[in-house]
Amino acid sequence: MKTVILMVASYFVNFILLSVYSPFAMLVFGPFLDPATLQRLNSNPGYSYWFMSVLVLVPGLLMQLSPFQRLMIFFSGYKPIEGAQRDMFEQALQPILQRGGLEGQDFHLYVNPDQSVNACALGDNNIVVNEPMFRYFTVDELSGVLAHEMGHLQKGHTWKLLLLWGMTLANRVAFWCYRMVLMFMTVLQIIPFIGWILGFFCLVMNFFLQIGNWVLTYPLILFNRYCARQDEYAADAYACKVGLGPELYEGLAKIDTMYHNPRLSFFGRMLSDHPATDERLRRIREYVEEMGTR
Predict the structure, then answer these.
(1) Is it the case that residue 151 has pLDDT exceeding 90?
(2) How many other CB atoms are there within 10 angstroms of residue 51's CB atom?
(3) CA–CA separation, 119 vs 127, rounded Å?
(4) Is pLDDT at 21 greater than 80 in this prediction?
(5) Which of 46, 80, 81, 294 could form a disulfide with 111 if both were Cys (CB 3.0 to 4.6 A apart)?
(6) Model confidence, pTM
């Protein structure tokens, strides 16, 4: 139910924002439309609403397709894993596949050269591990972390994230175009008198657009972060369910020790897409103990 609410809310928020930024969106997308379509969009609001719905929904749906996920992986700098790292990756993945009844060939494995200690799942069947994980983690600890990422894949969290990301794409492009126009008008402010008028216009336009953007998106961001934290708990529970709770506990505890994560304030917790690590560790410990008593 939370997922449905999040997607519907995301659609309406992005639709409204795109309607606000529509003049700037047309600067980008308009040249790809034939003159007859542009005329219908200008004269008939129904066509404009249909066009904006397409711009919001289609990128999100395209991100569910493997070719577009591969493009995202390529531009993110992730590399297919090879050599000793692949051997360790596959060794750590093996107990997850066996206990979850999964097939190894269904998953694509990548390494991220970023030097932070992290891992992530992406799209339908892509798992990414940052390079330092292979140096600082044991195979068992890596198995626990990978079981958590597999939980995201098996519970459908990753396709939802890509859908939501794609639904914001047109808005991000329109906002970028708006910033370029604003920058150009700022340069023109050196012109006497006309520059003063342009400066005042830019100030008013920026104020209302930024306030509107904040009012519309901030509640959605808070709800999205809440859902993301619940997804983290669900992925932890999946790792425990397949019998890798102790390994996940050790992996998370090591990450927490390495980063010395400070305790977040109330608003910091509300804006975080991950729950506090100590709370996750407590839940994992309780789940493992509960499983052990059955």
Answers:
(1) yes
(2) 20
(3) 8
(4) no
(5) 81
(6) 0.85
Nearest C-alpha neighbor of 170 from the set 289, 73, 54, 65:
54
Backbone φ and ψ for 125, nearest 5 degrees, come out as -155, 35
**Dihedral, CA of residue 96, residue 98, residue 101 and residue 107, to nearest 10:** 60
SS3 121: strand
Q: Rounded distance, CA 226 to CA 6, Å?
A: 10
Q: How confident is residue 148, by pLDDT bands cut at 50, 70 and 90?
A: very high
Residue with tokens 């993945």: 93
Q: Are strands 108-112 and 79-80 parallel, antiparallel or unpaired?
A: antiparallel
Question: Helix H segments across the chain?
Answer: 2-20, 22-29, 35-43, 45-62, 66-76, 83-100, 133-136, 139-154, 157-167, 169-187, 194-241, 245-259, 266-271, 277-292
CA distance 69 to 75: 10
Q: Are strands 126-130 and 119-122 parallel, antiparallel or unpaired?
A: antiparallel
- Gyration radius of the chain's alpha carbons: 23
Confidence of residue 154 (pLDDT cuts 50, 70, 90): very high
Bigger pLDDT: 95 or 35?
Answer: 95
What sign has the CA pseudo-torsion 72, 73, 76, 77? negative
